[in-house]
Automatic annotation (TrEMBL):
This is Uncharacterized protein. It comes from Pisum sativum. GO terms for molecular function: catalytic activity. CDD domains: PLPDE_IV (cd00449). GO terms for biological process: amino acid biosynthetic process; carboxylic acid biosynthetic process. The keyword Glycoprotein does not apply.
């Protein structure tokens, strides 16, 4: 039997034991020094030299990591420092949680309990809405989908629809954000670490306001992006039509695309028809100038895609488009099209200039795609029927 005991030891100790000067990997150098831990390694051993685990034990003494026990104020300070040291492109301006029943603007406490079933079981749904010039774009359309997703996921609402809507608008107001995005979740809630939500106290609403500081990304997208056919299995329609937090296939599809130097992967459905991207819908403009888009029965019904279908009517009036149709789109049909585009709250209307080996329009964004992008940006800025004003 062998024992390793770690005894806190003063630095000037004269004991003839090895010292491990071990510090935790902290992102802030000035604190690394303070948190340097000094432990004496005392080996009390009855282990014979021939014992097979001897080497293992010896090597363990080199890497043993003494984890500090933190007070709540220390944990808070570390969270605060962690947040302050992340120089990300996104800033979190305000968060609402129905657990604390209010809004905070302190990123250090924008947290979710570990036993929330959304965290450890993926039992949660979410949605978004863009904030443009102090207005929320298509909030009600996104809310409808949010509540449908919750109902399909058997998550009861903690409040009625009107109260949820009011909370979301107030969260944006508290954030003072005029251009950014609002994201919100309904979770089965905290309670335990079981699979069944029967031990959850109450479903929870969370919301966060995010300001994206990377305007350059938009410029890259407007020049057109490359996509590839995704090899990651598509979600079963039952799950694909629900905006749940189970985005592992979507993440893997995006990573696969990035590894191939592309922007996104395009899924095909179980019959081989074009489906959607990992967080966007897809549409094409055929040689006959028809705007075609896959049906929404096996994929997420995108708010942007639906709005584009309506706005595209104006291009028919101008004689630029001959028709608009939702239909099953084969890969062959898609690759023969004049234009391909991605549609979603994140990308708005994004031209695709290459899908696998197929190059669209000599590698330049198509005219109809550009017209649709202009129409949606104009709609976001000025369409009264679809914007919700925020009182700051
Ligand atoms: C899988 C998937 N498809 C499509 C979309 C596009 O939907 P929307 O236009 O509502 O953002 C999203 C957006 O989040 C998505 O996650």
């Amino acid at each position: 039997m062998a024992f390793l005991r770690f005894l806190p030891q003063p630095l000037n100790s004269s004991l003839s034991t090895d010292f491990l000067h071990h510090h935790h990997r902290l992102p802030y150098p000035q604190q690394q020094q303070q948190h340097r831990l000094n432990f004496a390694v005392v080996k009390t051993t009855a282990l014979s030299d021939s014992h097979p685990s001897r080497t293992l034990l010896d090597s363990k003494t080199q890497v043993f990591d003494a984890v500090p026990l933190l007070s709540s104020s220390q944990a808070y300070e570390r969270m605060k420092a962690f947040r302050e040291n992340i120089k990300g492109k996104q800033q979190y301006l305000a968060m609402y949680s129905s657990i604390f029943g209010g809004i905070t603007t302190d990123p250090a406490v924008m947290i979710i309990p570990m036993d929330d079933h959304m965290v450890h079981r993926g039992h949660g749904v979410f949605d978004t809405a863009a904030i443009m010039d102090g207005y929320l774009y298509e909030l009600d359309q996104h809310l409808d989908r949010f509540l449908n997703s919750a109902s399909r996921s058997k998550i009861d609402l903690p409040f009625d629809r009107e109260s949820i809507r009011r909370i979301l608008i107030q969260t944006v107001s508290a954030s003072k954000c005029r251009n950014g995005s609002l994201r919100y979740w309904l979770s089965a809630g905290p309670g335990d670490f079981n699979l069944s939500p029967s031990g959850c106290h109450q479903s929870v609403l969370y919301a966060i306001v995010i300001q994206d500081m990377s305007p350059a990304a938009g410029a890259v997208k407007s020049r057109g992006v490359k996509v590839i056919t995704s090899s990651i299995p598509i979600k079963h329609p039952k799950f694909a039509i629900t905006k749940s937090v189970n985005y592992l296939p979507n993440v893997l599809s995006k990573m696969e695309a990035e590894e191939a130097g592309a922007f996104a992967g395009i899924w095909l459905d179980d019959e081989g028809f074009v489906a959607e991207g990992p967080n966007m819908n897809v549409a094409f403009v055929t040689k006959e100038k028809e705007l075609i888009m896959p049906h929404f029965d096996k994929i997420l019904s995108g708010c942007t895609a639906k709005r584009v279908l309506t706005l595209a009517e104006r291009l028919i009036e101008k004689g630029k488009l001959r028709g608009i149709r939702k239909k099953n789109v084969t890969v062959e049909e898609g690759k023969k099209a004049d234009e391909m585009m991605l549609l979603g709250s994140g990308v708005l209307v994004c031209p695709v200039v290459q899908w696998d080996e197929k190059i669209f329009g000599d590698g330049k964004p198509g005219d109809i795609t550009e017209d649709l992008l202009n129409l949606i940006v104009e709609d976001m800025k000025s369409s009264p029927s679809i914007r919700t004003s925020v009182l700051y």
